[in-house]
Structures are given as structure tokens and as C-alpha cells.
Amino acid sequence: MRIRRTQWVIALAASLTMVLTACGGGENQLDSGGNEVQVNQDAQFPEGSTMARVQSDGITIGTKFDQPLFGLKGLDDKPQGFDVEIAKIIAGKMGIQPDQIEWVETPSATREEVIEQGKVDMVVATYTINDERAERISFAGPYYEAGQDLMVKADNQTITGPDSLRASGARVCTVSGSTPAEEIRKYVDPANLVLFDVYSKCADALRTGQVDAVTTDNVILLGLVEKSNGEFKLLEKPFTEEPYGVGIKKGDTQFCEFIHQSLTEAAEEGSYAKAWEATAGTVSEQTPELPQFGPCR
């Protein structure tokens, strides 16, 4: 009996070692944007795990295609941005090269759906962790903490923050199904809330005077401000905390723990900071630190 117990312990230790060493050494690969991604070509995982499956069958990742600095489809027809680089880091830890990833456009309103239906293996798409979403899917992370803010035309002096919206009768645009869409309801009348499926349509509405402000997470707005050529400005008065997580299938704690380890290693080896500096860091003065992770469940 004691021999069987010893054998069981050895087998369990071997299984755990496969997970814990899977993020080890590898070689750097250049992605389409010229950024280096470490690919662990020797990664091995327990049979039946999500990591083993995607390593064998390929990985499909959901992200956004319309959000500058985080997830924006480039001229090469592939997405670019901080979310995209985070996804590449995680995939690289499983031995998957950047050009082997299948990308799926995933707007805010469809993120839980594509995970539940198995259309993607994970979603990295400015995906705020909250209790309602966690009832349907699991989150790894957070890997970044943002804050909701307001973008207005550069010459707008009337809107000074969320508390000024209702009094000024401002029309505010955001994306349906998003956390900002729910939060902003505290500050505007329902008739003055305009919802679209993507933020680029909100930017167009602001440009043409159909709305007076656009609201979402500050880092997303920074990208829209950058593209406006001075037409828009960010108020820089965040009024929420928005922890961005990696969405995965409900209850896949093993994959969640692997993602946490992958992100921890990325922070330690400097690839997390490099991912930021090559994307959102081009318009942001501070490089963020990797936040403390929530529990895997």
C-alpha cells in the first residue's frame, strides 16, 4: 500500500512539473508588427488539459478589431495592440507562434457567448472582470487596471466630468453590453444615452455632433484621441476601476493558473513591459505593473 502511495505521489508531482515547467525557456519569434514573442517550443502539458489541446489542434483567440492601442486590425489584416500582445505571450508559453494564432473579432456584447459556444479558446479584449460575467465564464488575471473616463471635442468647456453630464443635457455614446454602458446610466438620462456595437461609431458620432461625449475605459479613449488629430480630448478624470481579465471557459482552473504563471513570468522577464511600451505606451507616460491576480474558479 505504501508503494502505491509513493507511486501516486511521484505521478502527481510529474504532472504538476509538466504544468509548472511549460512556461520555461524557448526562442524569440518576431510577430507581424516586429515585436519579439518568446515561444517555448519544448512546452509539455498534462493530457486532457486546455493547454495540451490547443498546442495540438491550434488556438483561436477573441479580441477587438476597432480599438487603437489595444486591439486594432492593421494593414496586414491582423490585430495589433496591448491585448493582442498579451494573448501572444500566453500562446507563446504554450509553444504557439504568433502567425499560428487564429484571431476572431469579439465585440463587447458577444464575449461570453463565443466562450460558452467554444468558438474561441480565450478572449483578451479590454474585458472587465465583474461578478455578472463570472457567472457564465471564468477569468484569469487581471493583467491591467483601467478606469472609465470621458472624451469630448477639444473645444468643449461645458463637460468637466460625469457629474456635469445630466445638468448640461449631454448626449453620451458608448458600446452596448459593456461595463461603461451600465456605469454611465448613473449620470445621464436614458434618452441621452446612445449605444453602438463598436467605439469607432461613437467617435464618428462625436465628430459629426450627434453626441457630446464618448465614455469607456481611459486607455481606449486615448487611442481614439490619438487618431483624432487634435479634434478630441480626454478629460483625464477616471471615475471607475476596470480590471481587465482573460476570459476562458467556466471552471477551467488549470488553464487559469497557467495563464497566471505565464503573465508572472512575462512581468519578470520584461516582456510584459515591452508589450505595453510597443502599444499603449506610445501615448501613455507610465508603464503599469502587473496587478495582483484574483482567484481561479
UniProtKB/TrEMBL annotation:
Q: What's a single GO BP term from this record? A: amino acid transport
Pfam families recorded = SBP_bac_3
Q: Among its keywords, does the record have Signal? A: yes
Superkingdom of this entry's organism? Bacteria
Q: Which UniProt keywords apply?
A: Signal, Transport
This protein's GO cellular component annotations are: extracellular region; outer membrane-bounded periplasmic space
Solute-binding protein family 3/N-terminal domain segment(s): 58-283
Q: Which InterPro entries match?
A: Bact_solute-bind_prot3 (IPR051455), Solute-binding_3/MltF_N (IPR001638)
Nucleotide-binding among the record's keywords?
no
UniProt lists the family membership as follows:
Belongs to the bacterial solute-binding protein 3 family.
- Name-wise, this protein is Transporter substrate-binding domain-containing protein
